[in-house]
Structure formats: C-alpha cells, structure tokens
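ok here's the first one, seq then struct tokens
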Amino acid sequence: MRILLILVALLAVACGRTTPKTGTPVQTKAVDPTFETEKILENWAGQMYVMAKDLGYVPANLNEIPADGWGRSTRYARINATTSNLCSAGLDGVWDTNDDTCQKVISGNLNPTRNPDWTPAKMEAICTMLKKGDISMSMQTDGKSLLSRVPAEMKPEFIACSQSVVINGEQRAIEAEAAWDIHRAYILYFLLWSLTDKPNWSSEAKRLEKWDQAGAKRIPVVRAGTVYKDFESNEIAAEDKYKGWFLVVGNVRSVATTFDGSPYVEMATGTREFRKIQCLFSPGFKSRLRVMKKDEQVQIPCRGGRRLIGNPVLECRLGSTFLVNKDQTEALVAVGD
C-alpha cells in the first residue's frame, strides 16, 4: 500500500509539470556593435588614464588594446606628451572615414623624464628641472650617466641646458663635503658625472657613496678622562650631555664580559688607577672586540651613560671613523649595528 501511494504521488508531480512547446525560439536581445564599441572605448580611457599616471608618461605604443564591438582591431595613437586616443573604424570597417569612433584621453600631472624614449617633451622637462635646481632625475642605478643616454642629435641642446649646473656644481660639492654634508656632496658629484660622463667625478661620487650608505654622522669627539670628570662633577648634567652619539677616545685598560655575557671595554682616564669608564656592548660585538689590546688607543661610538660604583658605564657600538677635524673635536662616524 505504501509503495502504491508513493507511485501515485510521483505521477501527480509529473503530470503537474508543464511540457515546453517544441519549435518556439528563445528570444535574445541583439547587441548593438556601435553602442558596444563606445562602451569599450570609454572603459579603455579610464584604464589608460590610470596607466599613464602610474608610468609618469604617455607611452608611444601599447602591447595590448581591445577589439571594437564588431570584433575588429582598434588603433592606438600617442598624440603628445599628455594625450592619447583609441579609435575604431566604425560600422563600415574602413579607416579614416566619417564613421570612425575615437576616445581621447588627456592625462595630467605626469613626469615625462621617466619616459624611456627620448622625446622632445622629455628633453624639455629635463632642461626645466635642471634650471630649477631639481637634480633628482640625474640619479641612475644601472651605471649609465644621463649624458650617455641622450641621442646624438639632442646632445648639443642637453649640454647647453646643463652648462650652468656643471659650472656651479663642483664648487657646491666641495663646500658640502667641507661642511660634512656628505649626502649632498655625494648627490652633487653624482650629478656632475651624470651630466658630463667625466670619470673623475664618478670616482668622487663612489668615494662618498660608501660614507652616505653607511649612514655617517657628524658627532663630537670626547676624551675618556673628560667623560669621567663630567660624570664625577654632575651625573644628571652628564647624562643629558651624552644622551646622543659621541666618539670616546682613550686607551684600552681591559676587555672582558659581564656576568650575563655582555662584552665591555674598560678605558683608562689618565687619572688614578681605579678611575675608568666602561664601554658596554651587546653580545653580537664580542668576536670583533677580540682584536683589541691593552694600552691600545681606540675610538668608540657611545651614547647615554650612568654611574656604576662611581665609574661611568656607556652604551657603545663599534663603527667606522671617516673624518676627524683638525681640532679633534668632531668626527664623521658610521655607527655599527
């Protein structure tokens, strides 16, 4: 009986379904190729605007461009430094007739100097930047100077617009290095090389590049005895005075480690035997401190400090000293990590 009821229910469901009539075509909305082409070109315009902004320039050619509403190839053109357009041949499929459809894109706030192609717009932009003193465009990373990139027919114009920068550049670089403004001196020498391709300025730039990349800082030079006396005189004032980096100079008295394994160097202060300063390092410097010898004069970058059992204890690192002034009061130092 239960099986019979199930069969009856299934039959009722089957009978209740509507059987579609055969031979009735499915209605689909026709796509207007002209309207579709307009949509394609408008979408491309938005993408092109973003692309040009990201690149900094309007490219001369594109690797990929969309087909129009008829599935035919479109045509891209760069009109000028900020403008481009994409065209369809239209309904008749013939180029340069009245039914051609085009979408123009005007991109603003571009940087034509980033364009790998040497266009008149790029040359004009570079000359404008040089006249304004903007030298960032000269920094190249592949070992080629800016002058070597300029096409032969544009070199006279390039040399003419860069002449004033070259004439004044060397003196400014010398003054910057004398003032220990190493980053500026490095940039200026690099600029001079990039504008002239002369190897002597390349050598100067490479010499200063090492200092610049090492993060060299201008810091005071202080004798170990002076540090001790300052802390002995007024610990609070000394902590404030030595909170920044300074180069402490003195003779090694001993090299040892604390109870927790941190290495330190004791410096003699030139006064009594028990008066000393302690240069405390992190454990990572232990292997580099092995070469230090007793009574050897050393220069160690340190900062901060406190008195422990009467003697100053400083936070120190090893570093590279590039320059020390004649008065032995300041040094150009790269503090190690």
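and now the second one, same deal
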Amino acid sequence: MDRAHDLRVATLATLGTRVPVIFRYNHFRERPPSDALIRVAYRTTLREQIFLSSVGREGVLAKTPFMRRVAATTIHEGVDAAAFRPNRRAATEFRRGAGVGNRPFLLAVGALSPEKRYEVLFSALRLMRHRAPHLVIFGEGPQERELRVKAAQLRLDVSFLGRVPRAQLVGAYSACSAFVHPGCVETFGLAVLEAMACARPVIASAGGALPEVIGRDGTCGTLVVPNSAWDLAGTIARVIAEPENAARQGIRARERASRQFSVASMHRGYAQLAARHTGYRLITGAFDDSSTEVRNAAARALSDLGADRAASYTKALREASPDRRRRICAAFASSGLASEAINCLAGESREVTYDAFTILFLMAKAGEVKPLIETIENHVDLAVRLAVIKLLAFSNHADVVTAFRRLAVRGSLPSEVRSALMEAIHDINTQARQPAQSAA
C-alpha cells in the first residue's frame, strides 16, 4: 500500500492484532499526512516504511519527527531493460502511426495534473518560437481540457495521445529526440527511468527524486532549474541541436538504468523486506512462483536471511519437495549467486570458501550442474576449475562421469584440467566398483 488512505484503513483493520503493516510512501505533496489516525499507525501497527528514493526519505523524515519512530528503507523502482530497450522497428511504426514523420519531437509521459508542470513546458516551447519541436504527450488526467486549450492559445504543436499500451510506449521512447519531464515533486519518476532504458536523452527538473535517478553529473541526462521555462527552453534547444552528443548521453543513460535500477534489484529489496517481517516460510514459498524474477529474488533473500547461508540453503533443500528443490537450485544459478560462489572457491578466506563449496555441492546434488561444467570449460582461474572438478566428483551425480569424459578429450583444455578430470573419473569408477565387490 502506498497512499495515506491505505495506511488509515490498514491501521483500523489490524489494530490489536499481530499483523505487521508495511507502508510504501508515495506522497508528493509538500507536507506528509499527519492526522490522528496516521499518528496512531506510527505508534502501533506500522513496522516499516519504504521510500522510493534516498532524497525523499531524508527530506520527509527531516520535517516529520513522528515518522522517525518507524524503520525506513529505500527501495528504488526498477525497469525491465529487456522490455524497455531501443527498438528501431517500434520507433518507425510509432512515427508512421502518430503522423510524426521524420521531424524531431519531444516526448512527455505522465498524468495530466498540476504537479507535472506542463504549463512550464508549454512556456518553454513558446519562448523557443519557430525553433520549438513537436511535443507528444502520453497521459490522462483532470488538466487535459485546460492543457489542450492552453496549447491552442499558444499555437504550440502538441499531440495529446492519452493512455497507450507498452509496445507503443517503447516505440515512442525509441523515436523521440529527447524525453522531457518538467515536474519537480516526483517521489521517483518511473517514466524517466523507462526513457533512460530506451537510451533516450532525458531533460528533467532538478527536483524531487529525479536527480537521484538521472545522476547529477550530466552524463546520463540534463537537469534544469525547477519551474524555469528559460532554462528548460535553452536545454531543449541545445539537445535538439546536438544529436550526436544526445545519442551518447542516451547510451550512458541505458547503462545507468540497467545497472542501478533493475527489476531484479527491486524484487530483491522487497524479498528482503518480506524476510524481515514474515521470514523463512514466505521466501521458500516464493520458489513456487511462476515468475523467474520472483524466484531469483527469493534466492537472494534466502542468501541474506541469516549469517550462515549454507545453513539456510541446507534447510530449504531438505524440507523441499523434489520440484521445489530443483527450482531453488535453478534460481541460485540464474540469479547470479552461483557465479559469485564459484568465484569464491579459490578465495583467501577459508570460511567464505567453505560456505561457497557447501552451497554449490548442494546445488550439484540436486542436479543443477550446468554452471559448474561451464566453469570447468571456461573459467579464467585454474584453481577454481580444479576446485569445481573435486566438488562435482564428491557430488556423485549421475551425469558427472559422462560430462567429465566429454571434457577430458578436449585438446583446448589446460593439461592440468584434463589430468584432474581423468583422475576424478578413475576415483568415481573405483568407488562405484567397491560396493559391487563387497556384495559379491
């Protein structure tokens, strides 16, 4: 829940129970809500509050002392960089469908409401006179009629396209010359992040959470003085006049969006939040979710649940059904945790190495051996490759000998690796014969 009304309802519903309440703060007005029921929530039912940006958290808590009683965490919004990415075909289709042609245009996305400051953008375009580019706006809201009248009065070239499906939105992001966001009270700015993921140069107000999303150094987007039509007009003119520089800025923007604001990172944050309040059972249950991203987030949360990661995984695998066991190990691999553990096998810390070896051994026992086989083939560290061979030999998995034989005949492998493989094959076969001989 992320509205003050939601918190009031949840407080009334859970008062006197042990049900924890978590509140995601998404209130953009200058003063946070502070009525009597909100204050009761902060004294009784509320266990943790989530902010979408660090600057938002610091600002709200600084001016609202009673909110400091409750633990506060920042979890950024995330963007699916596989869905929101540069798409030339979608851009061409959008230009054709929207009647934009080949001319440069600005894109703005957001509710048609006062806090988005469209009137500042219109004033900036008016100042640019004949140099003003076409403006496309996606969004609905209470100001639509007023803004349409205003654009007509100022004789601006503006298209109001309302709410559109994601496919068309990606096309518009990919086609626009620049994405512009004049609002200065954003609690995050998801549309800005989506435009960045599509490698578009972003022009945004230096207010709210937007500097935290874009960065303040100007490499991934340009921040303008809040509510300054003059600054906004000059920045738009410069970005439109320098397409090569704008393209480089867009590339860096996508890198920042993918690296710092991924969906996986957001899911991991909420999974860890859930672990703090509902713990182990909720995490292990998430491995049954149909979403790979949710299962990967659960793997991360399980790793962060306690100081002894190996113990957490041992317990989860021991209690799991065969199907869930496979999903747990697959999530450990696809979340990147397996790669991190593999790189720790030749580390200086014995404790870290033991922890990594134990978890990878459990993964191999459950049948998730592909990442380990690939490590033997390709890892740059010889010591890691040899450690993985030992680990797989200990696992007694049925596919190991076959995989080892296939690898041992490859001439491209270092001689030390081939020797270790042949020795492991011999040891596994010897151990397999001993029970048979004893039985005879």
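notes on #2: The longest strand covers residues 46-51. Strands lie at 21-25, 46-51, 71-74, 105-109, 134-138, 158-160, 178-181, 202-205, 222-224.
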